[in-house]
Specification:
alpha+beta, 4 helices, 3-stranded antiparallel sheet, single chain, 27% strand, 8 strands
Length: 192
């Protein structure tokens, strides 16, 4: 009786054992085939890399530019006394205007306080056809750019100083401002 029970147990699991032996045989034959076949196996992967993100200076050699400093925003900035703030804005306007008139390469950083704080890098430089321009670069935050470039850029081909009038919001009348225009469109781009 004992031998019948043990035979049943052996035969009951026989198909699992046969399957395991077949798998083992296939693996051994595969290893032997690969050892006999000395060809090198190379794998190929197609990888898409994200492009290097733009920087705000965009391949400019800043050693060729005069630096006008970093000008902090006076709007809701209670850390900076108003006289110092107004003085720094006057110096920034003078720096931009003087370098524009002299056609000297220069840049200045303007900070703006708001919900999402921004920095503008303002470059005074010739374009590819040696016409002088003023370029405003701003690095965009992720929520601003979606899948666009990292840098928002606009340019002007003319700058002049004027006194603000009643239509120059948010500036008070008779406040000195700079007006940036583009010769091609004659549109006013920025007032600072």
């Amino acid at each position: 009786m004992k031998s019948l029970k043990s035979k049943r147990i052996v035969f009951r699991n026989l198909h699992y054992r046969i399957f395991a032996v077949l798998i083992l045989a296939v693996c051994v034959l595969g290893i032997k085939y690969r050892e006999n076949n000395n060809e090198q196996i190379t794998g190929r992967f197609l990888v898409y890399l994200q492009p290097e993100p733009e920087t705000i200076i965009q391949n400019r050699n800043l050693s060729n530019y005069d630096f006008g400093g970093r000008i902090a925003s006076c709007f809701n900035n209670f850390k900076i006394p108003s006289q110092i703030c107004e003085s720094s804005k006057t110096q920034a306007r003078k720096f931009i205007l003087d370098h524009w008139r002299a056609k000297n390469r220069a840049y200045i950083i303007l900070e703006f306080n708001c919900d999402a704080c921004s920095e503008y890098y303002v470059f005074i430089e010739p374009d590819n056809s040696d016409k002088w321009q003023i370029v405003w670069n701003k690095e965009l935050f992720d929520f601003e750019r979606d899948f666009a470039k990292n840098i928002s850029s606009s340019s002007a081909t003319e700058v002049k100083q004027k006194m603000a009038d009643i239509n120059s919001y948010p500036f008070k009348p008779n406040y000195p401002i700079l007006v940036f225009n583009d010769y091609n469109t004659s549109d006013r781009i920025k007032e600072k």
